[in-house]
Amino acid sequence: MYILVLPLLLLGLWLLAIFIQGLRNPLSHVPGPWYSKWTSMVLMYHWLRGRRASYVNCLHETHGKVVRISPSEVDFASISGAKRVHAFVRPFPKARMYDTFRSANGAVNVFGTRDVDVHARHRRLLSSAISEASLKNVEHIVHQRAELAVEKIGLETKQGGAADVMKWWLYFSTDVIGELTFGDSFRMLEQGKVRTISIYWNTLWPSSGMSLIHRKNQYVHDLQNLAQRVRIRIAFPNIIKLASYIPLPLFTEAYASVQRMGSYAEQSIHRYENIIAAQPNNPKPTLFTKLFNVNEETMPKANIVANAQAYITAGSDTTAHTLTYLVWAVCREPSIRARLAKEVADLPDRYQDEDLKALPFLNQVIQETLRLYAAAPAHLPREVPPAGSEIDGYWMPGGTDVQTQAYSMHRDPIVYPAPEQFNPSRWEAPSKDMKDAWMPFGGGARVCIGLHLALMELRIATTKLFRMHPNARVSTLRGFCDDDMEQVIYFLMYPKNKRCLIQAS
Ligand code: HEM
User: Fold this and answer.
1) Ligand 1 midpoint to CA 360 (Å)
2) Topology annotation, domain 116-374+410-503
């Protein structure tokens, strides 16, 4: 009996300390559920279930545009708040969460770095190769890969009655970004399937003796499971750090997949470096070619590898999932499909991306898909600098995690009436608020560096699919239904059952 007194006393003191801490929480004045002053457990629970974004959205519906979601985090769903959180000039640094996006070799990359000056330098060195103007040089690669993807979708429909477009778009986007980053496509479209290989916790490539083709397949397999692994990395960053020493399967696999992806990036960049050394005057251009030119300002090779890895991970699932939802949403609405198919059918045979930029309905469809089915709709947290800052009339002390989520910005019923409805025509004459609230690519100084590439891929692939298959429709084979397409959101979003069956005819 007496044995219990001391532990109970300590527990009581501990709870009292937490209670007092909550009452003195510097974010107490911010609206939010009562428990968010004391704990982030509820938020974590929804995160682990892939429902954090919709939970935070519900909090906005109850508490308004500014919500305290945990003792140290505040989410903003207003345009003014988003502009402050994601500023171009004197931007807030990314929050601690981004340390989990560090690449396998430990070197910083443009996506994960939290240092504002380091970021500005990386961004300056990387930007010109991936600008709208420079991408004209690689447009033919996107055309070739999209053509093959659409052919494969047609073939799979002929053979099995329906094609899983999610799979083909992942192969498409992975092949494109692989070729543009490493100078060598993964050729996933040609192979048409990913061989899954069981990996033990300590099986890393350098010692595995896997062939190149196995490594590529493992790479794509790792990419396909990226979203769930990111969930674990963000939720338990400290355990992941120990995962190389302690064999806990869930954590070690999350750790090992990053190591494998880093190892593949390292070898591929090394191979490309050898190609440049062999043909210094005429190497196959990639998004990194300029950085190997000794006469120009460059970055250390470890950072080139880290950025290559960031491009591959940021540039494959995102584009593939957007295309998947686009095709599904269009095929469900015969009038939308017919209007889109007619617009792309009227193009000249040798059309270019420049022609596609001028097609009104195609671009409205893309904008609406990126609104309702944003591929990265979750929170994008930033850390308030030590001096603190006022946002939307609330004082945010230094160190607070302030964030926005496209999921909420894109569902404001005042800005987008009937927000859950897929209605491309709402973009015919968009209001200023519609344009300002639309942020599928993030915003400010950290806006997506690959957005022009992504938009080019979306325009070209959509055009090719609906020119070749103007009557494509959603399949009901193998029990496929709307439930399969329920959005699961960790950092990235994907359809619940990771498939999307379409009859391409
Ligand atoms: C539809 C496709 C895409 C979507 C929806 C998307 C979305 C986003 C979002 C929301 C961010 C901001 C992340 C943050 O603030 O934490 C971002 C950043 C980034 N994206 Fe994309 N992205 C797409 C395609 C691509 C592609 C094709 C690439 C290939 C290069 C890419 C590379 C990056 C990189 C490197 C960053 C970090 C930029 C920086 O911090 O300066 N993305 N993307």
Assistant:
1) 24
2) Cytochrome p450 (1.10.630)
